[in-house]
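Lecture 7, part 2: worked example. A protein chain together with ribulose-5-phosphate.
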Amino acid sequence: MDSKKLAAEKAVEFLKDGMVVGLGTGSTAYWAIQKIGQKVKEGLSIKAIATSRASEELAIELGITMLPFAEIEQIDVTIDGADEVNNEWNLIKGGGGALLREKIVAAASKQLIIIVDESKHVGQLGRFPLPVEIVPFGYEMTIRKLRNLGAETSIRTKENQMFVTDNGNYIVDCQFGTISQAEQLEHTLNLIPGVVDNGLFIGMATNVIVGYANGTVKLL
Ligand code: 5RP
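Predicted complex, written out as structure tokens:
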């Protein structure tokens, strides 16, 4: 079985009747949403909130009941992917461009289960360029400030157009090299006017599940 699917299906075992569940974004979270849809058809009673329009549409198609934030005090469990996870369970996220909603949902969750294949488990963060969500106004200046912090930057495009997030913003992929002071960098980036948030998720994951190509799955 696909190692992303293995990790995703293991995470769904954590869900229980009555829970409010955060649905992640990306090709690994896709498998979790599929499995949740299957469990719901078999009788699992949960309600969910999604981290992107794409995940919300998929969940609705699968018959999962969705809730608006106005009706949620706390999310019991969120299941989401990551682009990198280190041994301290700090993350780089945002490869799919959903980092802002993912961080809002993660911060409202009692439990954040990260599901990855083995290629995402790294010794040190930073090989994957860090996604930073910025507002369109003055974006050239914001990118200059990111460069001044030492990043090689690349504004994300899709089909030769500027990639626009679900929130109407742009994404700049920033290569900082190895990130040793991740918490400090997360805060420094968010102090730049024009930066909405960045893909460093520090101290947020409560569980990490890794799927391996040999068909095994491990809870770190
Ligand atoms: C989306 C994300 C994804 O979780 C991350 O990019 C991993 O994606 P995939 O599961 O497709 O490898 O952060 O913003």
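Residues 142 and 194 are 6 Å apart (CA to CA). Residues 27-41 form the longest helix (15 residues). Keep this in mind for problem set question 3.
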